[in-house]
Design brief:
alpha/beta, single chain, five-stranded parallel beta sheet, 275 residues, Methyltransferase, Cobalt-precorrin-4 Transmethylase, Domain 2, Cobalt-precorrin-4 Transmethylase, domain 1
């Protein structure tokens, strides 16, 4: 049995009782970094009386994941195995995804415990409306891939959530300010930690605010959804488009809020009256 256990993203008190019980019973730990996991377990033992597990600790990351699977395939079936990332929910922007896929393919039982997540925590704090978002993880460091992913983020109809390293935050704000001066950005620094702080403003304003600061810590970035166009296509404009009647009806439905069936009838009547 394999259990994916979320770890605190900052404040160790955010650990759950269920997670600590799973730690105590574990026979094998698969860790993004064994040193970070052992440090967390010792802290939980010292502060919250968690019993230290008698377990084996193995690293599991993007470099050794495939090789490690060949070594532990029987353990995943026979032992209490846990996987933990360095912070937050496993599998999100970390190598745990290949473990999930492996378990599904080989019909191995696994469980995901709920817990801390930086992206969702920041989204709730952002105040952006809609309740819908897209998570894009870390931007590529440079080049065409970075530019392409940033353009994707800016074209979203929903808030776009990203992670960014402190030494690239100014570069990120410069890129946003160049592409869309008025786009609003929400920044969450060091979530749940002592120096947690929120910032929300236009990218160009935040850029000037941070230019002379020593930017440290971990950052979650949320980009405001792209502005909605005030222009609504008229039925005349929709009918003139090179689309099938059903596609035109769907477009008119989105513009007016009427049902596609009702819009189809309107379009067909309009065509009949103007033919």
């Amino acid at each position: 049995m394999l259990t994916f256990i979320p770890t605190p993203i900052g404040n160790p008190a955010d650990i759950t009782i269920r997670s600590m019980r799973a730690f105590e019973e574990a026979e094998l730990f698969l860790c993004e970094d064994t040193r970070n996991t052992k440090h967390l377990l010792q802290l939980l033992s010292d502060r919250y009386d968690m019993r230290m597990p008698n377990a084996i600790f193995l690293s599991f990351n993007e470099h050794n994941g495939d090789e490690r699977l060949s070594q532990i395939c029987n353990d995943l079936k026979e032992k209490n195995v846990v996987y933990v990332s360095d912070a937050g929910m496993p599998v999100i922007s970390d190598p745990g995804q290949i473990l999930v896929e492996y378990c599904q393919h080989h019909k191995i039982s696994y469980d995901i415990l709920p817990g801390a997540n930086a992206a969702l925590t920041a989204y709730v704090a952002s105040g952006f409306k809609g309740g819908e978002f897209v998570f894009l993880g870390f931007l590529p460091h440079k080049g065409k891939e970075r530019k392409s992913k940033l353009e994707i983020a800016l074209k979203q109809d929903f808030a776009a959530i990203l992670y960014e390293a402190p030494h690239r935050l100014l570069k990120f704000l410069e890129e946003i300010a160049t592409i869309d001066t008025d786009r609003e950005i929400f920044l969450a620094k060091e979530l749940t930690k002592k120096y947690q702080k929120y910032y929300k403003n236009r990218a160009i304003v935040l850029l000037e605010e941070f230019r002379d600061e020593n930017i440290r810590g971990e950052w979650v970035v949320i980009i405001e959804p792209k502005p909605k166009s005030d222009k609504t296509l008229s039925i005349e404009e929709i009918v003139s488009l090179d689309l099938s009647p059903k596609e035109k009806a769907k477009l008119l439905s989105e513009a007016t809020g009427k049902s596609p069936k009702e819009c189809y009838s309107e379009i067909m009547n309009f065509i009949k009256l103007n033919s």
